[in-house]
């Protein structure tokens, strides 16, 4: 094993699958992962399927993540779901600041910061997504954008509550496009994220946190990406919708 960090492979199901389809895929994954595997595995179904998926996965060790949440616990916030309700539905993790939330739904850094603090406060494991757009990469702004998103999200937080944080580097231009960052490009950004965590908090925290790569991860490219020293797992979109394409990615993680 390359580090003490346990690999983490999570499937982001986005806006796909009914209750029955979600439960069926969860059961397939549970059966497929009955063999020993090193990686921690998670799935993020749509909110309406969180409960059935968590029930279907009981006893499997596969964790269940929500795809978003609101920072307030309750109140006049039509259409929102809070951390206590996600926990009530069986989620232990939550994806925050996904690029589709940022760029399709206009989420801003400040809201993501509040969500991160609320998730940690309630004991949900946050999977914080950061990533640059193609114009940022072509303009040489990748580091500024990615570290800027990271800094904004953890602003005001101490190292102690961040022990569970998972970060996902997802270059926007690689999501759903079939274009993947090269393993070397991914490694470079992951190392920059870890270095920033070390200077902002401390080296021990930086060394312990897992940084996942996301963006067109497939069975064919997973092993190469996951072999890089700072790539601690994957956040998988399209290839997580079928057991036949998701399970080989879990296997590639060890
Ligand atoms: P794809 O794997 O479909 O590119 O999606 C990546 C992603 O956005 C995971 O959160």
CATH architecture descriptor name of the domain at 125-210 and 227-235: Alpha-Beta Barrel
What is the structural class? alpha/beta
> Which geometry do the CA atoms define?
globular
Distance between the termini: 9 Å
Cα gyration radius (Å): 17 Å
Order of SSEs: EHEHEHEHHEHHEHHEHEH
Number of strands: 8
Number of helices: 11
Give every kind of bound small molecule, once each: 1,3-dihydroxyacetonephosphate
**What is the helical fraction, as a range of percent?**
40-55%
Give the rounded overall mean pLDDT. Answer: 96
The level 1 CATH classification of the domain at 125-210 and 227-235 is Alpha Beta
Low-confidence segments, given as residue ranges, are none
CATH topology of the domain at 125-210 and 227-235, which one? TIM Barrel
Largest sheet: 8 strands, parallel, barrel
Tell me the strand order in the biggest sheet. 1-2-3-4-5-6-7-8
| Name of the CATH homologous superfamily of the domain at 125-210 and 227-235 | Aldolase class I
- What proportion of the residues form beta strands (DSSP E)? 5-15%
């Amino acid at each position: 094993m390359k580090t003490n960090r346990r690999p983490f492979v999570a499937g982001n199901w986005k806006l796909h699958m009914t209750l029955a389809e979600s439960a069926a895929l969860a059961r397939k994954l549970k059966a497929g992962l009955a063999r020993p595997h090193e990686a921690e595995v998670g799935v993020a179904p749509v909110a309406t399927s969180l409960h059935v998926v968590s029930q279907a996965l009981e006893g499997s060790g596969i964790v269940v993540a929500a795809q978003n949440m609101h920072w307030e616990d309750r109140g006049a916030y039509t259409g929102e779901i809070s951390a206590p309700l996600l926990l009530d539905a069986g989620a232990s993790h939550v994806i925050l600041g996904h690029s589709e939330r940022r760029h399709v739904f206009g989420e801003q850094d400040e809201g993501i910061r509040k969500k991160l603090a609320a998730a940690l406060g309630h004991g949900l494991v946050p999977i914080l997504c950061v990533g640059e757009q193609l114009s940022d990469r072509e303009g040489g702004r990748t580091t500024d954008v990615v570290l800027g998103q990271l800094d904004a999200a953890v602003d005001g937080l101490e190292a102690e509550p961040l022990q569970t944080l998972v970060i996902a580097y997802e270059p926007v231009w690689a999501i759903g496009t079939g274009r993947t960052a090269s393993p070397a490009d991914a490694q470079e950004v992951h190392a920059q994220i870890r270095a920033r965590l070390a200077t902002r908090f401390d080296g021990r925290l930086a060394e312990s946190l897992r940084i996942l790569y996301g963006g067109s991860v497939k069975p064919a490219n997973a092993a190469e990406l996951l072999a890089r020293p700072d790539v601690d797992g994957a956040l998988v979109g399209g290839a997580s919708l079928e057991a036949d394409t998701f399970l080989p990615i879990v296997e590639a993680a060890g």
